[in-house]
Write a structure and sequence with these properties.
Distance between the termini: 89 Å
Helix content: 40-55%
Strand order of the largest sheet: 1-2
Strand content: under 5%
Shape: elongated
Oligomer: single chain
Number of strands: 2
Number of helices: 6
Largest sheet: 2 strands, antiparallel
């Protein structure tokens, strides 16, 4: 059935030993759903898998640039000293000062 549908759509079934078949379409579906940010448990349910590990390990892959994009989307963790001082978390060590303790 898939071969007939692919042929009708003008898609080659085999190219250099790689196949477009039912499972490759499932693989693409799961990978594209992950790329949209879908919840992995929802994808597992849509794929009708009983094990999330099966879904994530066998039916998804990382697209080019996804790792870089993910890292770039991390929040800015640089502490702004002005903001830190206002919240009472001023980092004295950053200014090379220290607290003077009373002598006993």
């Amino acid at each position: 059935m898939i071969k007939t549908d692919l042929k009708a759509a003008g898609i080659l079934y085999e190219i250099d030993g790689q196949f477009a078949d039912f499972h490759s379409l499932r693989h693409s579906t799961a990978s594209l759903l992950i790329q949209t940010g879908a919840n992995p448990k929802v994808i597992q349910s849509l794929m009708r898998h009983t094990d999330l590990n099966l879904t994530m390990s066998n039916y998804t892959h990382i697209y080019a640039g996804q790792q870089r994009e993910t890292i770039e989307n991390l929040p800015d963790f640089v502490i702004k000293q002005d903001a830190a001082a206002m919240t009472g978390t001023y980092d004295c060590a950053a200014k090379m000062c220290c607290l003077k303790l009373p002598k006993n």
